[in-house]
Amino acid sequence: MVRLVSKDLNVLYDKQSIIHNINIEIPDKKITTIIGPNGCGKSTLLKSLTRIINHESGVVLLDGESIHKQNTKALAKKMAILPQTADHSGGLTVQELVSYGRFPYQKGFGRLNKRDHEVINWALKATKTEAFKYRPVDALSGGQRQRVWIAMALAQETDIIFLDEPTTYLDMAHQLEILELLQELNQSEERTIVMVLHDLNQAARFADHIIALKDGEIIKSGDSHSVINSEVIKKVFNIDAQIITEPISNKPICLTYNLIKGEN
User: Fold this and answer.
1) Where is the ABC transporter domain (predicted)?
2) 229: buried, middle or exposed (CB in 10 Å: 19+, 13-18, 0-12)?
3) Contact indicator for 103, 154 with CB cutoff of 8 Å
């Protein structure tokens, strides 16, 4: 099943074409990862799929309707986005920050009702951040803060969650912690996860569907074996990679690689 698609999507940034005629289908209730070199348009694509930025032409459809024609609060009940620079909490406590996820459901003066508190507490429990409930977000470690931001996205009660490089600046243990949390949410809550990742092995391990971008165009999309192979990696990153199959997960991993010099 597919709920979110783009058709002939073109996006400009500072009058420069960034995304070129992209047609994608995001598998429902799966984890989709977008990979590609710096500046290839990964974050731009993510933002255009969530209506953060406008596109020049083409269309993004959610449930058969253009996202630009949907009511803002109604759309916010369907999709949540965690941007790459989600680190400005303004002195808020964990509970206060997570409560912002209830904005699409607020009426009048925006007072939290019983249902709101139930969802907030559930989101804290699901992300294992309930122990930090009354602590300032700024006082938490990087991994803890990232889990709190994910809790805020969960509090929106959306079927689709977008994350732009959720593991950036985290050490290896915290990266795995975040990715395993997202995998658990996908499997237990059937949330559709769409995220940008830099690490190819993490993408191969955790994604059901991978989209490889270069210069604003899709080079290849499909499952990990279709995308994480030496031919595609050469086209996308200009590197000669040795890919093997990891015996436990049966997923491809990049064992080693070298830059291909003298080629673009």
Assistant:
1) 4-240
2) middle
3) no
Dmax (CA) for the chain in angstroms is 63
CB within 8 Å of 74: residues ≥ 6 apart? 104
254 phi/psi in degrees, rounded to 5: -90, 110
Structure tokens at 7: 């058709």
Please name which of 82, 44, 224, 49 lies closest in space to residue 165, comparing C-alpha atoms: 82
d(CA 95, CA 119): 11
Q: Residue 143: how many CA atoms within 13 Å on its side-chain side?
A: 13
Task: State the pTM of this model.
Answer: 0.93
Residue 51's SS3 state is: coil
What domains can you pick out in the chain, each with its CATH number? Answer: 1-78+158-228 (3.40.50.300), 87-157 (no CATH)
